[in-house]
Amino acid sequence: MSPGEKPEKNEKNLFEDYRGVWVFIEVNKDGKVAPVSLELLGAGKRLAEKRKTELAGVLIGSQVKQLAGTVFEYGADTLYVYDDPIFKHYRTETFMRALLACTEKYKPEIILYGATSTGKDLASAVATDLPTGLTADTTILDVEEDTGLLLASRPAFGGNIMATILCKKYRPQMATVRPKVMKALIPEPGRTGTVIAESIPLREEDVRTKVLEIVRETIKRARIDEADIIVAGGKGLGSPAGFQLIHQLADTLGAAVGASRDVVEAGWIGHHHQVGQTGVTVTPKIYFAIGISGAIQHLVGMQNSGLIIAINKDPAAPIFQACHYGIVGDAFEIVPALIEAWNKALS
Ligand code: FAD
């Protein structure tokens, strides 16, 4: 069905059936609720309070019921649970069928997903099938109290402006939200809610996608989205050999290695190290930006770090407008001196 053929659903009475803010609860590989889902419960709670409606989670997986307590402690009033071995591994087809069935039955007005590989995949599949609109990579969320219109804002045009995207004609309104952008509520131990067990008539033989094997990528270093300290390097390091200086400082400090997009595109390091608009958003306690100019697309991914230390030989580099401490000079002189001083202090 082309967009032109979609039924017009903008009449008020049709929207009145849609109530409640939902968060898709993602489960990590270690069987815990993904931090981004806890953050979204915090964001969802604020939207639900403004709309005087309830906040619900949707949990899909195998042997996941026991996560209900965490979801309630972080703000949900209700949890819809699909707990079945068929949901053991994430598959677009199975998760989408469950979420579509739940949406059709209970009609939420807003659904939020983490902008993770799972959340992005699921949200786009659900949006296409419903059909409804989806704002990807949202960084600011609000809602109009009276109309219930979700105001989903995200950087646009290369990060130079913030665009607020509305979905006026369709429900539910949906958005994916980057990890580490929203704040989780302080958990309330012992807080409870209503668990609603759901199921769909789906047999394994009807599912086209099979998970044959899971091959885990071995990443030797700490992940940048989890690290307390990140040493990030840019094109100013000159070459893959020059970029080794970043690894040396990271080794010394026990830090993760980050990079600008230009470094990733040059093939000096893999994409999962890229910080920024088209990479990962990070909020470490300490962020070193070395030989990085400070383009807006990089800044949006690290500007909420606790302490930003920039090293750049150009005093006019924009990174100096975004850092707490700036050192003007050649990275090849300053970084070895830092490593030496650190090692000396510890010996
Ligand atoms: P440069 O801009 O080339 O800066 C190198 C810096 O190193 C300069 O400031 C220079 O003074 C300094 N320098 C040189 N030699 C030395 C030395 N010896 N010692 C110290 N300093 C030195 N970029 C990202 O990083 N992440 C993103 O997610 C991202 N997404 C983007 C999305 C879009 C749609 C677009 C259009 C761009 C995106 N970019 C992103 C690219 C971004 O615009 C910049 O091009 C990029 O961040 C620049 O990388 P850089 O700072 O490493 O390189």
Automatic annotation (TrEMBL):
Keywords, alphabetical: FAD, Flavoprotein
Annotated residues for binding of FAD: 260-261, 274-278, 291-298, 312
Electron transfer flavoprotein alpha/beta-subunit N-terminal domain: residues covered: 21-211
Recorded coiled-coil stretches: none
InterPro entries per record: DHS-like_NAD/FAD-binding_dom, ETF_a/b_N, ETF_a/FixB, ETF_alpha_N, ETF_asu_C, Rossmann-like_a/b/a_fold
Keyword Flavoprotein carried by entry: yes
Cofactor: FAD
Highest taxon, organism lineage: Bacteria
Entry note: cofactor: Binds 1 FAD per dimer.
Gene3D superfamilies linked: HUPs, TPP-binding domain
Gene Ontology terms: biological process: fatty acid beta-oxidation using acyl-CoA dehydrogenase
One Gene Ontology term of the molecular function aspect: electron transfer activity
Family, per entry: Belongs to the ETF alpha-subunit/FixB family.
Listed name of the protein: Electron transfer flavoprotein subunit alpha/FixB family protein
Natural source organism: Paenibacillus cremeus
Lineage: Bacteria, Bacillati, Bacillota, Bacilli, Bacillales
